[in-house]
């Protein structure tokens, strides 16, 4: 095992601890506050968010827009893939920040429009990231994996360990999903969209305040992509290092 791979494995151990830690007092407090905020948000806003989430999930599984990325062939080592990932993450963070500033400057109407736009940016990023680490995004099962990565990134702190276990036990998890578009119904997408909304709603409400929206929107979107990138990088690294066939190809480049 080369030095860089050892470093990555140590980072994955730290990440496991992070994903399995108990919710903090802050998490519990914000959850209570989030519930109260959700009760005050107009039903129309809830409907837009719910509909956007549902259609984006379906598009993720069956839409050609997300399945045209070329998988990087296994001639690239882990260090090279990490470098490429960071480069694309930087691009998507800047893109999300610009989008957030634009919609944030427009008040509540454009603030609502930001929800599906940001969701689309995140999905495009995830598919490109998956390709960088060698996943075939045209494979229906790999698209299901991408959705689980998304779920983990924005999961409720009280459910994060369970979401993490479903990712690292992927061979068992994927058995729940038949290889057909109808298997989307096997996912608890209502829970997925509610956790996602709870994760972003608090700061997104501030984005709708006139005069403050552009600054909050840019910062929030940049931060959300950064959080997603942290989880995605470790999930895809884990897949790469636990896939024996791929690991052998990488190791052949670094004979011991």
Automatic annotation (TrEMBL):
It comes from the Bacteria. This is ABC transporter-associated protein EcsC. It comes from Fictibacillus phosphorivorans.
